[in-house]
């Protein structure tokens, strides 16, 4: 499976990260809801800067499962 020093296949890190990725998946669902509401509020009142910041935070929550799995697989050696 591993071909060298730049190995990206880390099944142990993937398996250990699955429960945390599931929790972050739940957070990303909350992020999607916040993003939809924030996007609607931004369309209604584009001058509201705080809504734009909340939408950016929601996008970070949506990307959380990917970041969690990348972090876990980077911490476990091949």
Description:
By secondary structure, the protein is mainly α. Helix content is 77%, strand content 0%. It contains three helices and no strands. It has helices at residues 11-44, 49-62, 64-75. Helix 1 (11-44) runs antiparallel to helix 2 and helix 1 (11-44) packs antiparallel against helix 3. The longest helix has 34 residues, at 11-44. The protein is elongated. 9% of the residues are buried. The mean pLDDT is 79.
Separation, N- and C-terminal Cα atoms:
9 Å
Q: How many helix segments?
A: 3
Quaternary form: single chain
> What is the average per-residue confidence, as pLDDT, rounded to a whole number?
79
Structural class: mainly alpha
Stretches with pLDDT under 50, minimum 5 residues: none
Q: Largest beta sheet, briefly?
A: none
What is the H/E string?
HHH
Count of distinct strands: 0
Radius of gyration: 17 Å
How are the secondary structure elements laid out?
Layout: H1 11-44, H2 49-62, H3 64-75
Helix pairs in contact: 1-2, 1-3
Quickly describe the structure:
By secondary structure, the protein is an all-alpha fold. It is built from three helices and no strands.
Tags for this model:
single chain; about 80 residues; mainly alpha; 3 helices; about 75% helix; about 0% strand
């Amino acid at each position: 499976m591993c071909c060298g020093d730049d190995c990206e296949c880390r099944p142990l890190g993937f398996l250990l990260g699955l429960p945390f990725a599931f929790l972050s998946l739940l957070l990303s669902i909350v992020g999607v809801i916040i993003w939809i509401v924030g996007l609607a509020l931004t369309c209604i009142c584009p001058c509201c800067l705080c809504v734009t910041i909340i939408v950016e935070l929601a996008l970070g929550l949506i990307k959380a499962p990917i970041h969690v799995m990348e972090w876990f697989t980077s911490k476990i050696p091949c």
